[in-house]
Design brief:
heterodimer; A: mainly beta; four-stranded antiparallel β-sheet; 1 helix; B: mainly beta; Immunoglobulin-like; five-stranded antiparallel β-sheet; five-stranded mixed β-sheet
């Protein structure tokens, strides 16, 4: 109790006030743009990088892929050409390169190849409890499998994009987006023509449908689909 | 054989041939040995367009082209001038006489190819005088013109006239008509009719355009004609209604905007809808998040089709916009749409207490951290209170700890100019064992009120 009293009589300080970060997105021109704000009030910033093919962002790590590099806050890493799929895991990531059909682990700016070969079109990657899980499409079915090929779950009969999240899976049907939580709860948002789904930040997924980009909030109990303002401004 | 060769060669010789024609609109009418210009009111100028056409295969040099006779003049290029094969040269033959009589002139054209001679005749008569009432504007010309001004499409505009015989003889008016789309004699004497010397007859001409546009016509009274002009414009719409999806307005909303007319549009139209934001606070001049989402801008094109009540906005039935994170007023304005009444619509974003989007409490070595994201649409945030609890839920003395970061928030709002959304981390340095602290009630307060979050340390 004495220590607690010491604590409560100690100094209170504000550690910084900033515009809230929501995450990042890749706009149709390949510019990486920061997204800021709060639910229902978003600001899409000027490009932070150009020539981006893929990007993902979580609580502790954001990665982006150019044609030949992986960009992070710490610098650049040489990488196989083409777009990539990121499975973020704390400060590490599993990366799948779509053109070379190869997996690698990214850690501290270094890529270590992984000798994984999966059957099907790789759609998304996540790491849960230290274990990688991969969403793949076989025929028109989307599945969740492990790198050794073991099937974890069937997702849906869909030709649309899929995003694996730590506590669920987000996938597109012809006329809607479905967010299925690990506990089985399912949320459906009417949205035809979804082109892509990406992990925008720790609480949001970026969903692109036609010319519009949406932010789907994935926090438990606060699931909601917002429309993001169209990006304005060029790179400084 | 030689003569046969000569015959064959004849068609190959290049020859010019000049023809003189009278233009009736765009139609060429050959002129014979005489050209009758008809009746011309005394003092009026009659102009007739003539055309010189070279129908041959060689150029023709025009060395003489004249109208020799009192009252006749010819507006033509200086002599000599050349008309290329297949080409034309238009000229104006004018006549004006003051004395009542029949006039004639010898119209002569001499070219390197052939010559043409024609007798031109015109009769000067007493012309009826037309008085235009002030509701329509007239000009003496030439040509004399009567302007009906701007008239709404579908409506009728009338002009009153007096027709007077200024002569000393009775006048018979045989031709009395209005030509041209939208124009007609609305009331007055039916031709032929007589006008006694010095007498006056009244008549009205109507201009009733069916669609927007520029109109021209003619009022023809025997030897006199007047150009009629008018402009028609579409009827203004009834005041458009700018409407929103249901629910009270507040900050951090994404709302739908629609625009409609109370009655079907009488014509198609297009314009734009724009919004402007006026914050209540003086701390920031604007809130950049208040935009139409589809474009990230504050203006969108709108259009409506004839017969419809619904405007499309950027081609869609509705448009979404953000309300931002500042209390104030969002004003929606239309431009390019002519309407009865100003459709500008203003919505009020009321001041509200602190809004927290997320809040967490975490422990790290030497510190307890409370992080929150939210917004303060009054820009008065900064007052905070923290009450810590132990594992049994009991308040840890001394109870609520007050803090005031108002100046920090003001500096942040002023620096970022990006609305009032914020993320803040408040830290409590730990001098001892903090394991007994299980939770905290964090209260964030602004000018309107507070928001308390009960947080469990993770």
């Amino acid at each position: 109790m004495k220590h607690v009293l010491l604590l409560l009589f100690g100094t209170v300080c504000v550690g910084g006030i900033d515009v809230p970060d929501v995450g990042i997105l890749v706009d149709p021109s390949g510019s990486l743009r920061p997204v800021q704000g709060v639910a229902g009030n978003f600001l899409v910033g000027v490009p932070a990088a150009l020539g981006i093919l893929s990007a993902a962002c979580a609580e502790r790590l954001c990665l982006a892929k150019t044609d030949s590099k992986i960009l992070s806050a710490g610098g650049e890493t040489d990488a196989p050409p083409g777009p990539a799929i990121f499975g973020l895991d704390g400060k590490e990531a599993i990366v799948y390169f779509l053109e070379t059909h190869s997996f690698a682990r990214w850690r501290d700016g270094v890529l270590d190849p992984l000798d994984w070969a999966v059957d099907g079109e790789v759609l998304s990657i996540r790491v849960r409890d230290g274990t990688a899980e991969i969403a793949v499409r076989r025929e028109e079915d989307a599945w969740i499998i492990r790198p050794d090929g073991a099937v974890v779950a069937w997702i849906a009969l869909t030709r649309g994009p899929v995003l694996l999240l730590t506590d669920g899976v987000l996938f597109a049907m012809a006329d809607s987006i479905v967010f299925r939580r690990a506990d089985g709860a399912e949320f459906r948002f009417s949205l035809p023509g979804t082109n892509s789904i990406a992990q925008m930040g720790p609480h949001y997924a970026a969903v692109r449908a036609g010319a519009l980009t949406y932010a789907l909030r994935t926090d438990a109990g606060r699931e909601r689909l917002f429309l993001l303002p169209a990006a304005q401004g060029e790179a400084p | 054989m030689r003569s046969a060769l000569a015959l064959l060669a004849l068609p190959l010789l290049a020859r010019a041939q000049i023809a003189l024609l009278q233009m009736n609109g765009s139609t060429e009418v050959p002129i014979g040995s005489a050209l009758n210009l008809g009746k011309v009111a005394a003092g009026d100028t009659l102009s007739v367009r003539l055309r010189v056409r070279n129908t041959g295969s060689a150029k023709a040099d025009i060395t003489r082209f004249s109208a020799d006779g009192a009252g006749f003049t010819l507006d033509r290029p200086s002599l000599p001038f050349t008309v290329a094969p297949g080409s034309v040269q238009d000229v104006l033959l004018n006549f004006r006489g003051l004395t009542l009589a029949t006039y004639s002139a010898n119209l002569q054209l001499v070219s390197s190819a052939n010559s043409i001679s024609t007798i031109v005749i015109a009769s000067v008569v007493t012309g009826a005088e037309v008085t235009v009432f002030p509701v329509c504007r007239g000009s003496d010309g030439p040509p004399p013109t009567i302007d009906f001004g701007r008239v709404q499409a579908g409506q009728r505009h009338l002009c009153n006239f007096n027709l007077r015989n200024p002569g000393t003889q009775e006048m018979t008016v045989s031709t009395f008509q209005a030509t041209g789309s939208g124009f007609q004699i609305f009331s007055g004497p039916q031709p032929p009719f007589k006008l006694a010397a010095g007498s006056t007859a009244s008549f009205m001409v109507s201009f009733a355009p069916e669609a927007a546009g520029v109109y021209t016509g003619a009022l023809i009274i025997d030897a006199r004609s007047y150009v009629l002009t008018g402009v028609a414009f579409d009827a203004p719409f009834p005041k458009p209604l700018i409407e929103f999806d249901s629910g009270a307005f507040q900050s951090a909303q994404q709302r739908h905007l629609t625009i409609r007319l109370p009655t079907a549009a009488t014509s198609s139209a297009s314009g734009s809808v724009s919004l402007a934001f006026l914050p209540d606070t003086k701390l920031v001049p604007d809130d950049p998040a208040v935009v139409f989402l589809a474009t990230g801008t504050r203006s969108l094109p709108i259009s409506i089709s004839q017969g419809s009540t619904q405007f499309t906005i950027s081609g869609q039935a509705s448009a979404m916009f953000q309300t931002g994170t500042s209390s104030g007023k969002i004003r929606f304005m239309l431009s390019g749409i002519l309407s009865d009444g100003d459709p500008t619509t203003t919505v009020t974003i009321p001041a509200s207490s602190m809004a927290l989007d997320t809040a967490t409490a975490t422990k790290r070595a030497g510190n307890l951290d409370i992080q929150a994201t939210g917004y303060d649409n009054t820009y008065s945030a900064g007052s905070m209170s923290f009450t810590f609890f132990d594992g049994s839920g009991k308040t840890i003395p001394p109870g609520a700890i007050q803090a005031d970061f108002t100046q920090d928030f003001r500096a942040f709002f002023t620096r970022t100019q990006s609305g009032s959304a914020f993320q803040v981390r408040v830290s409590f340095p730990v001098a001892g064992d903090a394991s007994g602290i299980a939770g905290v009630d964090a209260r964030f307060t602004n000018a309107v009120g507070g928001n308390t979050q009960h947080l469990v340390f993770q």
